[in-house]
Amino acid sequence: MGQLITRELRRLWQSPWQLALVSYLPLLGTLALWWLFSAGLPRALPVAVVDQDQSQLSRMLVRQLSANSVISPVSYQDIGQAQAAMERAEAYAMVVLPFKLNQDLMIGHQPSIDIRYNAQFLLVGKLLSSQIQLSLADGLKQKARLKQLASGVPPVQAEINLNLIETQSSALYNANNNYVAFLVPPILIALVQIVAMLVFANALTEELRRETQAEWFSLGTYRVLLSKILVYTPLPMLQLGLVYAWLYGYLGLPMRGCLGQLLLAQLVMLLAVWLIVLAIFALLQDSARVISFCTALFAPSFAFMGVTFPTHEMPLLAQWWRQIMPSSHYVDTHIGVIAYGQETQALISQLSSYWGFLLLLPVVALMLAKMRREQTGEQLDQAQITEGQG
């Protein structure tokens, strides 16, 4: 086994691309992602405002929007110009304050304030939608309070009338509304899964590129596979460990649970990734097709985690696709440990969700046995040709 591990390490050292994948490339990607989200929360996002009323109330509502640090109102003369600004991504949302807004409110009518946002920018759009509604609600509440006081309602009763039901919004996984803590770890999980897939796929297809299948099977099919697993499993875990130490140790992002649970879950996730890649390799037996198929399979892993989009709203096919991604199983453990400080029993329950990947074991065993028979047949044919020529 020591000789087999040395064989893998020698091949790793001779491959600059493979060496980059297991060393500095993921760490550079981590730094780049942190830099992109280092502001923590989007601020001063441009919002197109069309003030058709031009009243004291409408100007006050615009000031309410300006007071919100997330919103930066930009005035437009008509709806067409505001829509064109949204199409050019110069504004992420649009607010239309209708004509006679103040007058309709004074006489008891219920005018509609048109709020639109660009849903292509998922997180930005949802953030603006909620912040715009909160800002406008605060402004309209002041108007309603003045109206009630003018009609003779006592101040205490006016406050009760305006706040019959109080609402509180609490982010489940992002209590501090920090996008570094909310987005960066899941993106890194998806990144590490893709990198791990590429690393193991390269290690397997290296046997095809070097045409060393005969050497592989002569050394022992499963012994060689075990040596690859022993070499390439600790490296992604070390990368993730360094990333988590930086995020939750140096940067001080909140973590309520134990890092040991995450390390165990990472190990199981990586073993599931190895099993999927090995099954695809055994079925396709072609370097380009193996890499292409694995990349297409794992590419949407971040979207399928359910961090930014409810998975139960996905089409049935997408939900099935999500179930065959190890990162989708791992993210439940990550959220449980980071956000809730879950107990060991919850971890055991989450790890049991990987049982379906064990169904790939007989498939891999059959396909590797077929590869070995084909390789043996090719060797016999080559030997007979050589004898015939002799």
Description:
The protein is mostly helical. It contains 18 helices and 4 strands. The chain has helices at residues 2-14, 16-21, 24-36, 56-67, 79-87, 101-106, 122-150, 155-162, 179-209, 213-219, 221-232, 234-250, 259-284, 287-298, 316-323, 326-340, 344-351, 360-389, and strands at 45-51, 71-76, 93-97, 114-117. It has a 4-stranded mixed sheet, with helices on both faces. Strand 1, helix 4 and strand 2 (71-76) form a beta-alpha-beta unit. Helix 1 (2-14) packs across helix 11, helix 9 runs antiparallel to helix 12 (234-250) and helix 13 (259-284) runs antiparallel to helix 16 (326-340). The longest helix has 31 residues, at 179-209.
**Helix and strand composition category:** mainly alpha
Radius of gyration: 29 Å
How big a fraction of the residues is strand?
A: 5-15%
Overall spatial form: elongated
For the termini, the CA-CA separation is: 38 Å
Instruction: Output the helix-strand order.
Output: HHHEHEHEHEHHHHHHHHHHHH
Using DSSP, what is the number of strands? 4
Helix content range: 55-70%
Low-confidence stretches: none
**Annotation field: number of helices:** 18
Largest β sheet strand count, sense and barrel closure: 4 strands, mixed
Mean pLDDT: 83
